[in-house]
């Protein structure tokens, strides 16, 4: 399996200019998508609060659940065919400028302005869900 950093090197894109989307399922089988800078770590408790659920109710979305949303593991995108999906963007994503993110397929990505990506998900929440590396301003 290729690491995100290896993919970035191959594309000539800094990891800091990517948006990764992590997919979870709520107890009601709702898809929960967390979009944050590619080099950041997810704050699971903050994501759960933003989505209005308990931290213990976050479960990773499996390949079958992602397929129902039109996506594949390794290519998750915050823009989903699943209109009931809950999407939470980290507040720092809006300041990233031009970024690369998943396309829904594991073999391709999208290059887009972060503001346009966020605008493509009008019902998305904005919250502080990412821990950025210590040497980077928040």
How would you portray this structure in words?
20% of the residues lie in helices and 28% in strands. The protein is an alpha/beta fold. The strands form 2 sheets. Strands 1, 2, 4, 5, 6, 7 and 8 form a 7-stranded mixed β-sheet that branches. A hairpin with a 5-residue loop joins strand 1 and strand 2. The protein is globular.
List the SSEs and their pairings.
Blueprint: H1 4-11, E1 18-25, E2 31-37, E3 41-42, H2 44-51, E4 59-60, H3 63-68, E5 86-90, E6 98-102, E7 109-113, H4 114-119, E8 125-127, E9 130-131
Parallel strand pairs: 1-6, 2-5, 5-8
Antiparallel strand pairs: 1-2, 1-4, 3-9, 6-7
SS-derived structural category: alpha/beta
How much of the sequence lies in strands comes to 25-35%
The percentage helix is 10-25%
- Rough shape? globular
Pattern of helices and strands: HEEEHEHEEEHEE
User: Which oligomeric state applies?
Assistant: single chain
Q: Rounded to an integer, what's the Rg over CA atoms?
A: 14 Å
Helical stretch count?
Answer: 4
Name the poorly predicted regions: none
Please summarize what this structure is:
The protein is of the alpha/beta class.
Keywords, separated by commas or semicolons:
single chain; 138 residues; alpha/beta; seven-stranded mixed β-sheet; 28% strand; globular
